[in-house]
Amino acid sequence: MSETRRVLTAHWDDPGVIALAGYEDAGGYRALRAALGKTADELIQLVKDSGLRGRGGAGFPTGMKWSFVPRDTGKPTYVAVNFDESEPGTCNNRELVEREPHALLEGTAIAAKAIDCHLAYIYVRGEYLWQARVLQRAIAEAYAAGYLGSNIMGGDYDLDIVLHRGAGAYICGEETALLSSLEGFRGQPRLRPPFPAVEGLYESPTVINNVETLMNVPHIVNNGPDWFKEVGTEKAPGTKMFTISGKVERPGNYELAMGTPLRVLLEEHAGGVLDGKAIKAWTPGGSSTPFLTADHLDVGLDFESVMEAGSLLGTGAIMVLDETDCMVEAARRLVEFYAHESCGKCTPCREGTWWATRVLGRIEAGYGRDEDLPLMADVSENILFRAFCALADGAVSPIQSTLTHFMDEYE
Amino acid sequence: MAIFEGTRLGEAQAIMARYPEGRQRSAVMPLLYLAQSVEGHLTREALQEVAVLIGVRTAEVEAVASFYTMLRLRPTGTHLIAVCTNLSCSLRGARAVYDAAHEATGIAPGAETSDDGEFTVHEEECLGVCELAPVVQVNVANHDVVTPERVHEIVERLRAGEVPEPARGPAVESFKAASRMLAGFEEAGSPAVTQAGSQAGSQAEGANA
């Protein structure tokens, strides 16, 4: 296990970095200046070499994503920043932007330069009203200082960044639903292929990246790919933002090396389980990732290790339940979320999640029937991988994982 | 009386200019927010006017408006109180906070808006402040680590015509004012951005230093 360090949170003790002057004092916009002197191919190669993988959940290699964008179609290219952070338990993007908004703008501008894009949209969830205002102020500062707009830093590169606010729909964090929403439609996912890199916003090549992913980019430009790979695991280099919430003494956002075991995050950083109780269950990456248990405390928090343990790293959002919490209740509440947020496009998701909440509700209330457990297993099987997007699969996670690990609570 | 005329028509045009020529349909959400900032919710007439502005049928605008929870098609209170009851918040007592919001506002079980039109209480999915649960938003401004007692206090102060200071950023005086900000317009004279952070449990507190 490699050591950790603070990169994205290095300046969190300095409230001054919210403003441009403070950000510049901390070395801000140095990476953008360097990036403007590089070709698109050089920037893509740099990010590829770093091994940076998307922090929004899927862990797709960022440089490879950028390289899929064709630059000879005659159409404009777009960057869409996914700041729709809505996965229950996840709030690191919010704090990253609240504290250092210019880091997102700088990362976005470098990504834009790498795909020859001149117009980027930041899709921010509507509930992040204050964070959108922080960003709007930062964008205005960046324009005034010549870091955005025409002839950035006196060169020949132009870029506009525009905020687009969502309106309370979890599904818009799914990248094709985000594009539908940004184009003025209901936020429903689209068939892939064509992938957004080829045909995304306005039928044009588009890169969609998560906030944390983009904030890593300036550091990679400044320090190089080898530096980036000094921490984390071989397959998942770098640090990761983890949100830990629920029954812990010090809930919060913590930046630790990829692969850090949950035990270290829980005991050394979050102060252990609340009131000295024992941990019963935890999600590694938000509500759509299967629950793990007290037997999994030494699982490293990286894509591969968590998958090996039977779950997913997702957004790195750890929700902790203690020995007194009811797993049936927790599963019912999370499935209710998916039933509410299902966009309605696919029958297995729209109907399956609703029926699952009914059955879980009656089990929780003590009116469960003998056939309910096989019924839940059957409903889960008929939702999983049978809908258009991963929202439906997320709904199955709390059901199947509680049936696997906590069958006694249903009985 | 039309919503989009005079100054407001100019604002609508500024919103549409955020998107490339020929892609003005993208402006539907911010235009609906702007309409909502005038009437407090979206009326039939508002949907029709937005449809005309972006050149689509009213049904298509309604399809968008009915999809998103922050675009409200029913009359909504002066103040919108949103209580997150998702897992991280329920683990820290959100159910009692939600019940207290109903008690304090006098909203009957099953209803969402008080008879006097002052308050709407909405059970919310994750609001993204999980480390400071339970979380409540008053007119889309955040209050952290909220207790049932605190909800009563917030409602009392709103009744007295004051807007309690949120955890971060300035207070938002009404749901209409929030809708205007959501359309991308800052209120005149809003305080400068000077501080942002959450107070508890982050690395800034030295927990990881």
What string gives the helices and strands of chain B in order? HHHHEHHEEEHH
Q: What is the number of beta strands of chain A?
A: 9
The chain pair with the largest interface is: A-B, 76 and 68 residues
Spatial extent as radius of gyration of chain B: 18 Å
Number of helices of chain A: 17
**What profile does the largest beta sheet of chain A have?**
5 strands, mixed
Query: How much helical structure, as a percent, in the residues of chain B?
Result: 25-40%
Query: What structural category arises from helix and sheet content of chain B?
Result: alpha+beta
What value does the average pLDDT of chain B take? 90
Report on the architecture of this protein:
The complex is a heterodimer of chains A (411) and B (209). By secondary structure, chain A is α/β, with parallel strands linked by helices. In chain A, helix 5 (92-99) packs across helix 6 and helix 14 packs parallel to helix 16. Chain A is globular, with a radius of gyration of 21 Å. The longest helix of chain A has 18 residues, at 347-364. In chain A, strand 7 (279-283) and strand 8 form a beta hairpin. Chain A has helices spanning 20-25, 30-36, 40-50, 62-67, 92-99, 101-114, 129-144, 175-182, 211-223, 225-228, 262-269, 303-308, 327-341, 347-364, 372-383, 390-405, 407-410; strands at 78-83, 119-124, 160-165, 206-210, 239-246, 252-257, 279-283, 292-293, 317-322. In chain A, the strands form 2 sheets. Chain A has a 5-stranded mixed β-sheet, covered by helices on one side. Chain B is built from 8 helices and 4 strands, in the order H-H-H-H-E-H-H-E-E-E-H-H. Chain B has helices spanning 7-16, 28-39, 44-54, 58-65, 87-90, 94-105, 148-159, 175-182; strands spanning 79-84, 119-124, 136-138, 141-143. Chain B is elongated and about 50 Å long. Chains A and B meet through helix 5, helix 7, strand 3, strand 5 and strand 6 of A and helix 2, helix 5 and helix 8 of B.
